[in-house]
Each structure stands twice: as structure tokens, then as C-alpha cells.
Amino acid sequence: MGWAMQVPSACSPCARKPLSSRSTPICRNGLSISVMPEKNLSRLLIAPSVWQAGWPCKTVHSALLPFDSDVVVIGAGIGGLAAALQALDAGCSVTVLEASQIGAGASGRNSGFVVPVPSRHTPQSLRQCLGDGAGHFARALQHAGSDVLSWSGATSHQTGWMQPWANHCTPQLQAIAQGWQNLGIRVEMSNRKRMESDLGTAHYSAGLYYPEGGAVDPFALVQTMANDVASRGGRIVEDCPALQINPHASHLGIITPLGELKGNRVLVAGNAYGVEASRMTRRAVSPMALILATFDMTEVGPDVGVMPFSDNRKDMWFFRKLERSRVLTGCFALPLVQSVNQCSSLLKERLHTIYAKPPGELEHLWAGWVGLTHDAMPAVDSPDERIISWSGCNGRGLALSTLMGRTLTDRLLGKDALKLPFSSSRYWHKGNVLGWLAQTLIAVDRYTQRRRAFTLFNRPSPSGATS
User: Fold this and answer.
1) CATH code of the domain containing 27
2) Which residues contact 465 (CB under 8 A, 6 or more apart)?
3) What is the end-to-end Cα distance of the chain in Å, rounded?
């Protein structure tokens, strides 16, 4: 049986329908009602996120489609809007085409973590990917993360991000910390006492603290960026997908339901949500669903730490505290773990393990797509020197999307830009081989962790001990 959840709206008379319905805000008295799906992952993927459900009435961007534009950006997510702002800084006329509504894709459905390093990489593996450019990339990513936190403006945000280690390997951690520091990244070793203070848990004994990381409301962030683009003269056209891109000698013709737009340069930023002409960005990655949830933690008390954190498991555990004594967490969707009850049980187990107290009720549940690449780096493609596309946040999208939007815009405009290699291999994404492999590794890790916990829980008492 399905069930409903009440979410207080920040603007009490106004509530939003799920963004996938492409509806405009509707007005009601009282509370915003969000019906939660029970079994079907596809319904979780269109259920409003906690950020979307609680947002007040937003600005509708319905600019008229211009005749031409210096730069056309396809996709009004964080990456696309960062690209638009970069092009405006360069003095270009800019048009942003959004197939749905701003924040309907990954930018409004993620956890809001701002991670200042490519967390699936070590300093050594990043050097293997980028060579001498590794330091430049790492520092630029850290700088982009700082900008994301400053953009959040009046919205609440948390500063600092922790990566606890799920196993005991202090020498390895020290080597990783030193490697990042050598690349110009601010990072510190963190011991159990510090993590217990910052995170509110004694579950981990060591980890890495990144002061330039943090967490924001991603839906508020993308609205702020869109308003900034519009206030500076950029055009944003919602509910206007780019259907086709036709290269001509003198220009690029972008076909839309509203007519044809002529552009000199096109940046495609659809990521794992690409459709129509931006479908190339979805094909360049292996999409994997991430289920996200919020739980009431009132009974746990003030011991729940404020700092957001994600550990180093393949089946990553991540947590951040929200307002009104809530905690956000989540898990990757596997074929046998997609229903509300299954997800709720799994995440409640994790919360109980981390905070040593049972959590309260599940309040909100939704899902979003994560774009995976075989080398954990963005997939960049340029079928024409005037067209460039990218995809593949690998679950760490806010800082990386900002960096990629800026960098690829500079490359389109012929400026000195961060040199990232174009994608060389499509094999991993044929038949979603990479997605299958990732699910297998996560399933094995999840099984191993639960088996280990069961073994510890059922370990025989020492001889002579009383029960």
C-alpha cells in the first residue's frame, strides 16, 4: 500500500508538483503533499526530492527564443549554468535551452555534497590519468567547490567535508593526504576523537578532512545560478529541448519545438539526463540509480554531527544533517533493493550502526541518476570544433560540474583552458557493461559488510561471561 508524506513548504500557500510533470507551481493552503512510491524505481526517479518539495515558488524562465546567439548551452543544470556564466564573462550573448525545468535533473535531485577532490581517485591514479595536469585539475576543482559554497548565498550550507576510512589503514591515509597536499589540496588527517566530535559517531577510527568541501541545497543553488544568468542578460528557455544540431559552414542550427536557433558555439551539458540532441551525454556514461532518503533523528539528540561525510566503501555510506533534526543518507539501487520498505530497512540499519541509536521514521524518499565512467573522469567529446559535450560526474557533481562548465566554455572560445583528454573508449558503456560491473562490486561489498556485522554481533561470549 502506498503512503503519503507531509512536507512543510517554505512558502506556505505554495507547493510544487513533481518537476517531471512539467507543471507550473500550484497554490494550496497548508502543506505540500508528496505521494511516495512503494516498489517501482521508475516512480522514485520522478518523485520530488526533498529540495524540490520544500522550495517556495520559483522564477519561471520563459525567454523568447532569439534568432541567434554566440554561445548556446543545452541543459540548465549546474554545469550548463556555470558555462553560461563563463560565456557571459567573456562578453558573449548566451542562450540556455532546458528540456524540462531548472533543477528537474541531477541538479535538483542529488545529496548536495560539495567534494573538492575526485574522490574515486588517489593522487597517484589522478597523475596516471592526467600526467602533469593533475595538479592544475585538482586545484581548479577545489577552487570550484569553494565557489559553489559561496554561491549558495542566503541558503543554509555546511562547510567542511570528511572522508572516513571504513578499514584501519593509517599509513595509507597518510600517504594519500601527503599526495593531495603535494598537488595543492588542503587536507588534514582526522582521528577518532575529532570525527566523533565533528560527525557525531565513534564508528570510524581515521579519515581525511577537507576544509574546502561542504554541502548545500542543490536546488536552491541552481535557482540562484539561473537568476544570475538572467540578470546578466543571458536567455533561459525552459520546456524547450534541443531536438537536433545541424552544422553549417557559417553557423550551427539548433532545432527546437519553438523554431531554429543559430549559434556559433554549442556546449551540451545534459549529463545522465540527456534527451533528444543532448542524448549523446547519456550514451557516454553508464547511468546508475542512487536512492536518497531523509529520516527523523529527533530521538538521537544533538549528538548527530553537523559535518557531511562519505566513507570509502565501494557501497558508500554517506550522511549529512538537515534542519529540524533530520539526516539525509542513501544507497545505490540494486535489482533486489528498490522498494520503500527494503530501502528504509537498509538505511535504518546504517543509521543505527553509525549513531548507535535507532532512527525515527522515514520522511522522504526519491532517486536520481549517477553517470559513471570507466576511468572515474568526465567523458568529453567534440564531434565538431564548435560543439563540445561532457558527462560523467561519477556521483560527485557540484564542484566538478562547475569546473567542467567553465573549462569547456573556455575551450570553445579558444582560450587557454584546463586540458582534459577526450574520451577514448566506448566499450565500457555498450550494453551498460560498466553499470553491471559497478552493481556487482557494490552488491559484493554490501554483502561482505552485512556478513561481517552479523559475525561480530553473534560472536560467542568469552568463557565464564554472564549474559
Assistant:
1) 3.50.50.60
2) none
3) 41
